[in-house]
Amino acid sequence: MSGTNILMNCSTLAIHIFSMVISLIILGLIVYRFHYNKLYRRQIHIQISSSPFDDQISLILIGNTYLVFSIYHLAWLSIIFRTFIGDFSLLKDHFYLGDSKLCRIQVGIIFFLTSQMYHSFLLQALYRLFKIISMSRLTPIKLFQMSLNNIPIYILMIIFSWLISFLVLIPAYTTFHVFSYFPQQYHCLISFTHIKGFIYSLLVCYLIPVCLILYIYFHLIMYIRRLPNCGILLQTKREITIIKFILKICLVMSILGFPTLFFLFQFIITGEMHPFADRIHELCVSINALGFTFGFSILNSFTQLLPPLSADEDSSMINLRSVIT
Length: 325
Known about the structure:
Elements: H1 3-44, H2 55-86, H3 89-92, H4 101-136, H5 142-147, H6 151-174, E1 179-182, E2 187-190, H7 195-224, H8 230-254, H9 258-270, H10 277-299, H11 313-321
Antiparallel strand pairs: 1-2
Helix pairs in contact: 1-2, 1-10, 2-4, 2-6, 4-6, 4-7, 4-8, 7-8, 8-10
């Protein structure tokens, strides 16, 4: 039992607990705001039309992201607890911590949720793209413009993204054998030693979604040059700024993946793995997840999720009309 191992494990555990609590609080605020919007509209019998998009759509997409965050942290806690128990000889004698189907299911859930996390970021970027298309009326197809403001369409997109995350998980089990048992960690994890599996997980969980977000960002840059209306131009720049912030979060958090890449290249060159590689990887993942949790709370200005306590009708309308950004 190494003091360094226990320290890193406790740090990882504390970060995931803290991040999960924050995610649940924000998710609760989102549900509260969603209920408030419906109640407020029922009372005043109006439909908000300051934007071609309903702010309920934004709430649904952000809620999907924080739902993934919450489950993701919970799944990691179940894995870290195995390591925590294994680090203490008095505890591990009472639990079976070897390789098992449950062990591989746990890491499969992590793989699934990581993929879904980046898909939720992609959905938010698509929402910004569709919003600009609808505002600027760049598409002549009226039916398409109407569908962009349709809540069921976005619910179907969320369901479809969850389905894709499940489908990409199947080859990870059957073809690439991405997951392995780590005796020193007492749990299963994505293996550094299976290069093909590691590359596959990197592609489907991170690179492909981030590249699509990059494409959307540069596509919107091209849209700006086609917008003569100053009012629309300002709104468009605002949406592009949000997508740019999403990209910054993804790219800055990817820096925490450098230690993992360093250990991977070390294994490829020397054939040996650093004894602390897995613990450092898990600690970086927890910090990464914490950065996502706080980064998106800043991005979406979650203080706006609270409805105004006392205001006249005009100020209430302004607050209700503001899209969560």
